[in-house]
Amino acid sequence: MASVVPYPAPASAAPLLQVRGLACRRGERLLFAGLDLDLGAGEIVWLRGPNGSGKTSLLRILAGLATAAEGSRRWAGDALQRPLYLAHANALKDDLGAAESLAFLLRLAGQPADAATCATALGRVGLARQRDAAVRTLSQGQRRRVALARLAVEPSAPVWLLDEPFDALDAAGIGTLDELLAGHAARGGAAIVTSHVPLTLAAPEPITLDLASVAPRGRPAPAAAAAAVACEA
Ligand SMILES: Nc1ncnc2c1ncn2[C@@H]1O[C@H](COP(=O)(O)OP(=O)(O)OP(=O)(O)O)[C@@H](O)[C@H]1O
Fold first, then answer.
1. Pocket perturbation via mutation, ligand 1, pick of 30, 46, 55, 85 by most ligand atoms within 8 A of CB
2. Does residue 222 sit in helix, strand or coil?
């Protein structure tokens, strides 16, 4: 594994992410409510739950891309420490080459995007030979690897929010992603990872968060007018 550069430690002993009383409503349906979570440095959370239970919705709320019905989330550190969110869709441009498409994603996220960085990151996910190949010519697993190459670029965010990142990966790809997660945790980072199968990561041992356990029972959905979430840096 490459040299380990630690993330800046939060000023206090506060967790990297603190969630309190979070609720999510989609249309008339309350998906979950009363969700509390403390995500500490070095922790990897396996976010599980049945189809439609709200895993993607939760990650989008945490990433600031959707609004919670109730509750609060607080990040340690300043605004520059916002999470790295990898959506289930790869968001690659079919007509661009793999390296160009990765550079586009990195630029959007404010990460380094020069040619050498992209080449190194693609090599890390086993795509050194495909770096100039048009995205449309890549297999699903190779496209997934291009998107995941963002995780091999430093500096990165201390918290990763990964929506079904193992989809379409073969055993070698799963091993590489496990290594990236383990390295991230070893640097003091943390991640929330959705998956329909248990994570294979051996260390650190993933913490399971089952959305079925925070499904609302007999609670009415919060009114639309109450749709507000307190977000503190
Ligand atoms: N834009 C939307 N408008 C209305 N309802 C939506 C929208 N997006 C998702 N939903 C609903 O919210 C619920 C939760 O969806 P979400 O994608 O968060 O679940 P999930 O746990 O990630 O599911 P899966 O395991 O299938 O990926 C689903 O019932 C879905 O139909």
1. 55
2. coil
At position 72, the amino acid (one-letter code) is: S
Tokens of 66: 């959707």
Atom 2 of ligand 1, nearest CA residue:
26
- For 79-106, write each residue's pLDDT tens digit: 546 799 999 998 888 999 999 999 999 9
Distance 111 CA to ligand 1 centre (A): 29
Q: What tens digit of pLDDT does each residue of 13-68 get?
A: 678 999 999 999 998 889 999 999 999 999 999 999 999 999 999 999 999 999 99
Dihedral of alpha carbons 94, 99, 101, 102, sign: positive
Q: Distance from the CA of 207 to the center of ligand 1, in angstroms?
A: 23
Give the distance (Å) from ligand 1 centre to CA of residue 50. Answer: 11
Question: CA-CA distances (angstroms) from residue 11 to 14, 30, 77?
Answer: 8, 36, 7
What are the tens digits of pLDDT across the range 132-155? Answer: 999 999 999 999 999 999 999 988
